Amino acid sequence: MCGRFVLTATEDEICEVFAVDHVHQGAEASYNIAPTHEVSAIVSKAGQRHLGKLSWGLVPHWSREAGSRRPINARSETAHEKASFRMPFRKRRCLIPASGFYEWQKTPQGKVPMFIHLPEEPLFAMAGLWDRWSPPEQPPLSTCTILTTEANSIIQPIHDRMPVILPEKHWGLWLNNESFDLRNLQEVMQPYPADAFSYYPVNKQVNRVSVNNASNLERFEEQPPPENLSLF
User: From first to last of its 232 residues, what are the pLDDT tens digits of the chain?
Assistant: First the structure.
């Protein structure tokens, strides 16, 4: 599962790291990216990398209407078989830059938000699929979904799924929509190594999508209630 994530990099940093050739819509920092938000994404056209925006929550090109249930995630194990994802998986793969993501851990005190990140990689790439829906007499809508895989050993205690994170050596393969090799693609959609991750609790303010600032990333430990010091 990946339902909220963070992007702290600047547009220039994204362009440099991902070797972007063309910028169509700029990127800006966001500390609480949620479904339906526009997200920065990199797609490939004729061998050139393009940076633009996609609405998070995929609407297949064949849909009659956008609907309210737009999948924000697709299971990497079955995406190539599902009607909504089959064509994008073959021809419209993309990279979604991120600096980390949130997941909620169940505790006796309730769900605690955790910020999960890669300390050695402040900017990494999640594997995505995109599609373009063209409603009648309205502008086209370009949307995306993030692929997920089984959680690695460090994420497992928090959630059983995690986003597919692609190392740089696989970016070219993923963006090459001119060819399709299912076996090769499945081989790269594996859980990212557990030892690359770190996480810590953050303030429950991130539960509110409207709270979107750098304080979301500050470590937060709830204080236990004071002990009753009364003798009676």
Answer: 799 999 999 999 999 999 999 999 889 899 999 999 999 999 999 999 999 999 999 999 999 887 778 999 999 999 999 999 999 999 999 999 999 999 999 998 899 999 999 999 999 999 999 999 998 878 899 999 999 999 999 999 999 999 999 999 999 999 999 989 999 999 999 999 999 999 999 999 999 999 999 999 999 987 655 555 554 4
Among 76, 93, 74, 94, which Cα is nearest to 84's?
Answer: 74
Distance separating alpha carbons of residues 102 and 231, to the nearest angstrom? 43
SS3 214: helix
User: Which domains does the chain possess?
Assistant: 5-110+129-203 (3.90.1680.10)
Of the residues 15, 94, 103, 144, only one is catalytic, namely: 103
Strands 124-133 and 141-150: antiparallel
Specify whether 2 is catalytic. Answer: yes
Exposed (0-12), middle (13-18) or buried (19+): which is 63, by Cβ within 10 Å? middle
Inter-residue contact 50 to 20 (CB < 8 Å): yes
Backbone angles phi, psi at 117, to 5 degrees: -150, 175
Two tokens, residue 19: 């070797």
